[in-house]
Each structure stands twice: as C-alpha cells, then as structure tokens.
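Appendix B, example 12.
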Amino acid sequence: MNLLDLLKGKTIEDEHQLDTVKNTLPSNTKTLWYPSSGMDFRDVLRFSVIQEELNVSITEFPDLFVHSDYAISPLKLEEGVIYQDEQTTVTVLQKSELIWKNPFFYSAKIPFVSFRLELDEVSRQKMIFSTVPQSLPKKPVVLLLSVQIESEKVGKIVRPVLFVLMENFNFLCEILLRNQIQITHLVKVRDGSEFNQSLINAAALFPFLSHLKVKYLITDYKGKLNKRLTDRVCEEYSLKLHLFSLQQRALIKDWSLFPVNVFSLEHESDYASWKQLEEVLEPIFEQTKELLKIEKDNHTLDFLFRMQAVHDMPYRGPFQSE
C-alpha cells in the first residue's frame, strides 16, 4: 500500500493535486521517511539526481519523500522561497492540504517526552505520547508539497514531499505500522533530542526497521535504544521483533554538521531477542575517534564560516557542506 492511498484532498483542488502526484508514482513506490526533519531538505537533494558524491552508494532513489515533525509551523511551509543562500534556493512551488481517510488515535500530547498507557472511554488501553508542545496542531495536519531545489551542484530538481505534522512514534505506530507501509529509506539525523535529555531519541525507532522493511538507513551516531518503549509498542500493536543485518556502505562527513553513516539492511524471517537487536545495532552508536574528529572539525569550520559571514564573506549553505 502506498502512503498516499491513506489520504484525500481537503478540497477539490487538493484532491486533484494528490491524484496528479499519485499518477506519477510507480506501483512499487519507494518511500523515504525523515523523522524530526525540521526544515532540512538535504535528503531531496542527495537522493534525486545520479551523482556519486551525493548518492554515497545508494543506487535506489525514493519516489516519495515523507518528512515528519511536530515542532514546525505550517506557516513556514507556505508557497514561495523557504530557504536561500548564495548557492542554493529551496522553493515550495505548490502546497495542498490533505486529510486522513480513516480515523486513528492522534495524540496532540507528548512528542516523545515520556510514555504511559491510559484507558480511553471504551476502557481499551491506548498509547499516550504527554507534555503538549505549543506548535503541535490539535488535529492532524498533512501537507503535500512540490519542492524545488536549485543548486549550483546539481541544477534544478522538483520532488513531491509529504510533510506530516505529528509526533514520530504516533506516526510510526498509528499510520506506518498499523497500515503496513514500507519505508525503503530512513533518515535519522540531528532529531533534536541531543538538546534535551528528557526526549526519547529517534534511534528508538530502529527495532522496527524490519517491520518497515527499510533497505537503507542514513543515520548519525547519536542516541540510544529504548527497551521499555519498544516493549510497549510491541504489546499494544501485537508485534514481534525480527532479525536483520547491517552493512556499512558509506560515510557522509557533514550532514547538519554531524558525520552520518549509510547502512544497507538485509531482513531475516527469524524472531529477534532484545540482546540480538542490541548487538546488530551496536555499530550505529560507536563513537570512533574518526567520527568525533570529523564532528569537531565540522563545528570549527562552521564557526569560522559564520564569522566570515558577519563580514559579508560567502557563507556555506546547508547543501554545500562537503
């Protein structure tokens, strides 16, 4: 099932734009998910044009880009230029508002700050994700964007981006897992939890890579797993964890100032214990001297570029970081 099949346009014009995008997608749509993406569209730039320096050994490109974030105001995604520097311009050419066809449990509470179970009005256990971020909409908001990136490095590209304003685990559980949506590419970079130790890192998504059938994982080394949360999700959604293997394919030295590893995955049919998953995923979190040095150098260079920018010198934009 395609993720877009779960949605419909809020207006007739929105429905027309949705149909237009759906008609351009192949039947076996490859989907990239970037949780806690913020306003970062590096994934669209990297995985849209054949260029080894950008693609870093990924030969299968996504057909649909899906970004999720609860801290982004829809006002930041209006039609027009949303980012510009001397080498890169990002423009929203068209924006359509979509709504989910079927009801689901939407939490306008806790983005993954804490986790508990409550009884709803029919005494069924529900997952509640508590603490209300001021920017999280009271009702689900989904935007279908036509995003254009003009770059000196790759020229002009236009791609559809589905922007979902939801908490990551709410989206994972109620939309992706419940509807068995495949995510071929998962990007986990600088999800924000490093700035607040009370947040559950997006790395806690990794035990569910097999259920999403992820083929490529693009991730920084930050974060950790969360067994308690994983157990609760498995209990609530009747899931069993499966084994998979990771193969490191490449290193991106600078993505939002972080070094990022690219892994390919091979999925197995055997069930996995928590210990087995920890062993499989351990290489992701390894803080090697090389990674730490690259990150330190990135921040040093960024500081110098910012100082130059103060004096009207050219400043490196987010897509010219290598």
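Confidence is low (pLDDT under 50) at residues 110-132, 306-322. The CA atoms of residues 250 and 262 lie 5 Å apart.
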